[in-house]
Structures are given as C-alpha cells and as structure tokens.
Amino acid sequence: MIKVLVILIVLVLSGIFVYLTVANKNVGSSTTLTLGPSNKSKEEPEPEPVPTKEDLGTCEFTGDWAMSGECEATGTAIFTQTYKESKPGACPSNEKARVKPCCYQKGDWKDTTQCKTNGRKVQTQTTVNCAENFKTREVDCEYLSPWSKLGSCSSDGKQYYMRATVNSNQPNSKSEDCCYISAWGGWTEWSNCNGSSKTRSRSRIVVNCPSGTPTSETQTQSCSIPISSYFSATCADLGGGSDVIYASSLDDCMTKCKNNTHGYGYTCYGLIHGPGFCRVYNNKGLDHGTNICNSGLKTYTLN
User: What is the rounded distance in angstroms from the CA atom of residue 121 to the CA atom of residue 141?
Assistant: First the structure.
C-alpha cells in the first residue's frame, strides 16, 4: 500500500514538472511556479513596453543650389536648392538654404588709363570673391588728339589745324585768323629826278595783321637834272620881245630863263646864246628862214 502511494506521488510530481516546462516556453521567464506556500506580499514589476521607432519621413535633394536675392557687399548670399520631403521637416533646414560665397560687384567703375588712340580705355570696379575678368573692363571712349598745324599762315590770313578723333562728334579740323605777310615784290623803276631826288618802291600783301603793318616801302636817291634837259636847241632865230642879260655861262643863262630870274618881270620862253652873249625872249616864235648858227649863236626854247 505504501509503495502504491509513493508511486502516485511521483507520477503527480512528474506531471506538474512537464506542465511547468511547457508554460515557461510560452511566457518566457515571467511566470515562476512556486511550490509550496506562495509569497503574495512581494509582487515582481511588469516589464516596460518596447518603444516603436517614429516615422521621420523621407527627404530628396536635387543639388541645384541657386542664389536667392542679391550678393551682399561681404561677398556672401543666401543659396537655396530644390528638395522634396514626404512630410514637413523631413529635410534638414541647413540643406534647404545656406549662406555661401558669391561674386559681389559694386559697379563703381573708375578709369585707370586715359583714352587710347583706338578710342578705348580700361576701368576697374570694387569686387569681393570675383574672378579677375570681373574686376576690369575695356570700354569705348572719346579720343581727341592735340591740334597740329597744317603749314604756316596761309595767304587768306588763316592758320589751319588738324587732329585725330575716335568715337567723337567733335570736328577734326579748324582754322584761326593769323597775320599773313607775303614776300616783298620787285622794285619799280626809278622815278624822274625832280631836281634833287628820285624814288622807287615795292609792295607786299598783308592780311589779318595789326594796324600799321607796312604794305609798301620806298627808297629815295639824290640826283640832279642838267638844266639843258629843259630846253630844245635849234639854229632858227627867235622873234618877239627880248633883252640881253648877263650870264656867266650857257647853264647860267638857261637857269635865269627857266627860273625867271633874268630881272625883266616877264616869263622867259627861250633864249639865244653865244660866246659871252645871252638874250632872253618872252616868246618862242621861231624864224626858220634864218640860220643863226652860222654866226656862232644858238637858240634854246623851253620844252
């Protein structure tokens, strides 16, 4: 009887062990079978639930950064790129917009060279973070060369000038008044002697010159005229009123007749002269039927 009881107890315990083994496989180690009296006053804590991962969404960028707005004087600007996100905030803000370097051009162009003969000049401007080709440029400009004289003052009293012009509406030629004096012309023939002097002259062209600039000049030369050149000689006799005067020579007789210094108060028109003889006449009527030269005399009438 005791053996049977022992066998039953063993079978019951075996069954309980199998049951507990299966239960532990289903619920892990959270259930503990306590044989004998249980301690209800000390409960074990329940395990914390495992948190699930939050859905942050998806973000896609194209990488085509583009400047938004203008480049600042610091050489920086805000750049943005195109993006696609499945939900707001899926893309980081620093990937949507960034401050990046840019080429700042102030536009304060200043000449660094004078206008060249080809009508071009170089200018520079203030830049930040720019390539060299943005710092300088060559532009058209108005080129005017200095005025150059074309020869000397011309015969019309004008001085002509010429200059080169490029990219300009300004004239390339001009003229100004100038004092033109030509070379002297040739001398004229000497004038007849007036008894003491004779003259000749020459002239020149004067244009746009100061008042008083001489246009001609005259030369004077002393001379004397033979008294005989005022008379014509002939062998014909003179008629009319006459008087014999004293004369030391033929020239003296002629001079007193020409100058009417013979002393008789009338105009002398002729004379008859011979050795030691001088007769003045108040007319010059000639008698060609008489030849006084045969008597050593000669008639002289004023021209």
Answer: 6
pLDDT for 34 equals: 42
pLDDT at 194: 86
Give the pLDDT score at 56: 80
Which residues are CB-contacts of 174 (< 8 A; sequence separation ≥ 6)? 147, 160, 161
What is the DSSP annotation of 163-205? --EES--S-SEEEEE--EEPPP-PPPPPPPP-SSEEEEEEE--
Which phi and psi angles does 17 have, rounded to 5°? -65, -45
C-alpha distance from residue 27 to each of 20, 22, 45 (Å): 11, 9, 15
Phi, psi at 157, each rounded to 5°: 75, 30
| Dihedral angle of Cα 178, 179, 182, 183, to the nearest 10 degrees | -120
Global pTM exceeds 0.85: no
Per-residue pLDDT, 35? 42
8 A C-beta contact, residue 286 and residue 238: yes
| Helix (H/G/I), strand (E/B), else coil: 254 | helix
Q: Which residues of the chain have pLDDT under 70?
A: 1-45, 47, 49-53
Strand 236-238 relative to strand 286-291, pairing: antiparallel
Domains, the chain, with CATH or none: 59-102 (no CATH), 110-141 (no CATH), 148-178 (no CATH), 182-225 (no CATH), 227-302 (3.50.4.10)
Q: Which residues of 256-267 are buried (b: 16+ CB within 10 A; e: fewer)?
A: bbeeeebeeeee
Matching residue, tokens 């060299």: 132
Taking the C-alpha atoms of residue 256 and residue 234, their distance in angstroms, rounded to an integer, is 19
Is residue 191 within 8 Å of 161, Cβ to Cβ? no
Q: How many helices (H) and strands (E) does the chain have?
A: 4, 26
Find tokens 């001609």 and name the residue. 216
